[in-house]
Amino acid sequence: MPVLDPNPQQGQKKMLLVFGGFLAIFVIIGIIATIAAP
User: Fold this and answer.
1) For position 2, what pLDDT does the model report?
2) Could you list the residue ranges that cross the membrane (predicted)?
């Protein structure tokens, strides 16, 4: 089963959404850490 499917099924789409959410949270934490750094 390819990871990047041109026509993702519902499960794959949800998995991609969760992965994107984790990535967004990680980026936001990095930005906050950069701003909060002295």
Assistant:
1) 54
2) 16-37
